[in-house]
Amino acid sequence: MRIWCETVAMETAASRAVTTLLSRYGVDPILAVQPGGEGELPLALTRLRTEGLRPALWPMLDDARGRWGSAWNAPAFAAWVKQAVGACGSAGRGLEVVFDLEPPIALLASALTYAGRRRSANLAPGANLSRTTTKEALDTIGSAVSQLQSEGYRALAAVAPLVLLDPSPTVAFEPLGRTGMWQAWLGTPVDGIAWDGVQVMAYSSIVRGWSRGLLDRRASIALLRRSSEAAVQRYGPRAGVSLGAMGVGAFGDEPVFTSPYELAQDVAHARAAGVNDLALFELGGVLARPAPELWLEAFCAPSLAVIPKRSLRAMALWSIGKIASRAARRWLSVPHRAR
Hints:
Strand order of the largest sheet: 1-2-3-4-5-6-7-8
Largest sheet: 8 strands, parallel, barrel
Helix content: 40-55%
Order of helices and strands: EHHEHEHEHHEHEHHEHEHHHH
CATH superfamily: Aldolase class I
C-alpha cells in the first residue's frame, strides 16, 4: 500500500504527525522531488525509515522541461533521476525509484483545453521541447533503469492505462521502436525495459470527470476493473494500480472522489482483479479532508465483495483502443510502409 506525495512539502510528509498516520495504516509514501528540492531528501528519507516506512522516490523535472519522462525530454529526465538518487546519499540505499512516463505537461494541458476542459491557471508555459523517436527514448530510459538496478535500486514505471491496449510486448516491433501504437503516440516507452514494477494510473474520478458526461461512475469502475485485469495479465506480480484522485495534482483541477465508499469500491475491484500493489493519489488530498483516517481506512480495510461492473460505453472504448493499436501494427508491417 502506497501513497503519492505530490502537493505536500517533503518536510510535512516526513513530519511526526504524518508518519504516525501513515504507519498506523501501513501506507508507504512516494516522495515527489523536482530540481532544487533534492537537498531535503536525506533527512526526509531518514525520518520515514526510522518510523518503519519504506519510502520511494519520484523524480520530476520542472514543468518547462515537461515534468514527466517521455520522448520529448528523455536525456534530461534520465540525468535528473540519476542526480536525485545521488542526492539521497546513504539514506537512499536500496530505494524504489519511480519513472513517471507521460507526455509533457504543457502538451497534455493543451490537449485537454482543446477537448473543452478549462486550462488550469497554475501551469507554466512549456519550453520548445524537441521530440526524439520512441526507440531513442526507450534506449535512454532503459539504460538509466539498468544502471540503477545494477547499483541495488528498484525501478518502477508509472504509466497511462492506454499502454495496456498495445499488443503483448513479447515480440519486438522496430517500426514503432519496439513498442505498440499507444506507447509510440504518447512517447512513453514501457515495453522492452525490465521494470521491477509497473503502476497503472487508473484514476476513476478523473476518467469520469474529464469525460464530459461520456462516462458515468459505473463506466469508470468498469474501466478500472478492466485495466486492473489487463495489468495483471501483462505484468503478472509486477503489476500495480494507482487509484484516485483524493486531491488535485499538477493540473490543479483534477476531479476527486466524493466519498470514502467510492475509494473502497475501487480498491475492491483492483484487488478482485489480482492486483496486490496499490497506490493512492495523493497525500495532500487526504490531509485536506476533515477526517483523513476515514479515507485511509477505506484504502486499507478488507475489500468489499464486488462483482465486475458492466458498461457498454466503457467496453466499446476499450475495444476500439485495442483494435487501433493492432491495426497500426499491421499497417506498419507492410514493407513499403515500414520503410
